[in-house]
Amino acid sequence: MSGPTFEDDDPNDAGLVAKGLAGDNAAPLSITEISQLLKRTVEDRFGYVKLRGELSGVKRAASGHLYCCLKDDKAVIDGVMWRTGVQRLGFVPEDGIEVVATGKLTTYPGRSKYQIVIERMEIAGEGALLALLEKTRRRLEAEGLFAAERKRPLPFLPLVIGVVTSPTGAVIRDILHRLADRFPSRVLVWPVLVQGQGSAEQVAAALRGFAELTHGGAIPRPDLLIVARGGGSIEDLWGFNEEVVVRAIAGSPIPVISAVGHETDTTLADHAADRRAPTPTAAAEIAVPVLRELSAAIDEFGLRMRKCTHRPLTLGRERLEGRLLRMPRPETLVAQAAQKLDDAAERLRRGLADRAVRARTVLQDDRHRLSAPLLQSNMKAAKQRFDTTRFSADLVLRRIAERRERLDALERVRRQLDPKAPLARGYALVSAAGQPVIATRDSAAKQTLLTLEFADGTLDVVPGGAPKKRPAAPKPAGEQPKLL
Amino acid sequence: MAEQGTDISQMSFEDALRALEDVVRRLETGEVPLDESIDLYERGETLRKHCQARLDAAQARIEKIVAGPDGKAAGIEPFEAG
């Protein structure tokens, strides 16, 4: 270990050329040397360590190795995980996940770096796991993998059902049992690990494998898939939260029913499936209808149909009969006329009879009235009447005599009533020219000449005093005596 | 009704069942003329037989996939649930 010495120089002065100091027997180390020293120190001192930190800068190289950083709020350490370790990982590392990594500290001389070579890496607790789950869920949801419009209708009656699950355990038994109960079907089981490392890849590969089958191939292609797993912790079910499974389900051309865990455990696989069944048994119930019910329905349809076949006939017959009933019968057509005829004939007969009876009655009556004795008695009576009626002159004469008597009586009265009759008894009737009767002295005094009529003739007189005309008025032919 | 003229033997069970139900319903309304109803009945019978045949053929057959080295399905063999 002896290096060059330079006598003249102050050992503390920085020289232009490196030289050994007195008593300094340390030769400078090469970089490789120091790096090796560091490496040895670090690796010997730390060996295996267990670190907790958040993943960042996760990179998966083409070689399959994984490069990342582990950090907390103040420091960061590089990490690398070789391919073989990566393959054993129970999850897909990604930025932001808090992990516990176990490995050896080592240095990387080529870059003056130290790093941890991670042999095992786990998610740091359930909280971190849930955080990762939520993160993945949001990312895949944003991508639309869970969208309702992606969901495809399930076949009503699948011909072949593909089941992706563990070949052992209650899950497959439950499914097969319930399928057998409801509708015995052809089932293809694709056995997979449903838990632990590699399970997600197996499930995804099985889903893809079913999809790759072709119709009419040696292996029949299912028209419905069931992805199932029994209940378990979030860790147990983790495979069904992995992106590779979610994508395989979402991308399956065959409709998928998921039945992962218990009803309360919802994995991302459930979100991506076309239907989610709460249990494996429920998945079988969703998958197929009940054979007996279908059979009964078909029988019932057949029955109803057969019943219907008679229906048009029955209906037709009823309609026909209805028409027939409503159609007038020939005999009724005639019957009415016949009745009318009968009626008329009857009326004719009865009319004639009645008429005859009436006529007979009238005739009877007339005959009674026409009896000879009656006629004779009538004649007799008439004769009697005739006989008793006296037509004699006496009838006229008596009336004449009566009239005469009445005339004589009237003549006597007339004579008595003759105003000139009193003349015979000495009364005179005074008159003047133009006045047939002068009844008062005054009117007589005014006259120049009065005529007195007596029973035996008239005598003209001049009123006393101054008779103007003395000559006696020629005596009228009358014979009335003068009253004065 | 789209199935009216289609080949029944090619129909899915569900379509056939639906078609059968439709036939029954139409027959039951009694509005189908007699001649037509005979054809309809015959079609219904064919549909019924087609459906029944599918049910009669129902048979449990459980197999499992044997994967090849590439992870793809290589064949099938009878499955016994463990």
TrEMBL record, chain A:
Protein family according to the UniProt entry? Belongs to the XseA family.
User: What does the record list as coiled-coil region(s)?
Assistant: none
Task: Write down the top EC class of this protein.
Answer: hydrolase
EC id: 3.1.11.6
Q: What is this protein called?
A: Exodeoxyribonuclease 7 large subunit
Name the major location: cytoplasm
Query: Which catalysed reactions does the entry list for this protein?
Result: Exonucleolytic cleavage in either 5'- to 3'- or 3'- to 5'-direction to yield nucleoside 5'-phosphates
Q: Tell me a Gene Ontology molecular-function term this record carries.
A: nucleic acid binding
Q: What is the recorded function of this protein according to its Swiss-Prot or TrEMBL entry?
A: Bidirectionally degrades single-stranded DNA into large acid-insoluble oligonucleotides, which are then degraded further into small acid-soluble oligonucleotides.
The UniProt record lists the OB-fold nucleic acid binding domain at: 29-122
TrEMBL record, chain B:
Keyword Nuclease in record: yes
State any GO BP term from the record: DNA catabolic process
Assigned keywords, A-Z:
Cytoplasm, Exonuclease, Hydrolase, Nuclease
Report the EC number(s), separated by commas if there are several: 3.1.11.6
Q: Name one GO cellular component term.
A: cytosol
Q: Tell me what reaction this enzyme catalyses.
A: Exonucleolytic cleavage in either 5'- to 3'- or 3'- to 5'-direction to yield nucleoside 5'-phosphates
Which InterPro entries does this entry report, sorted A to Z? Exonuc_VII_S, Exonuc_VII_ssu_sf
The protein's matches in Pfam families, at most eight in alphabetical order, are given as: Exonuc_VII_S
Q: Which domain of life is it from?
A: Bacteria
Q: Which GO terms describe its molecular function?
A: exodeoxyribonuclease VII activity
Q: In which compartments does the protein localize? A: Cytoplasm
Grouped into one coarse class, the protein's main location is cytoplasm
Top-level EC class: hydrolase
The similarity annotation says: Belongs to the XseB family.
Q: What is this protein called?
A: Exodeoxyribonuclease 7 small subunit
By which gene is this protein encoded?
Answer: xseB
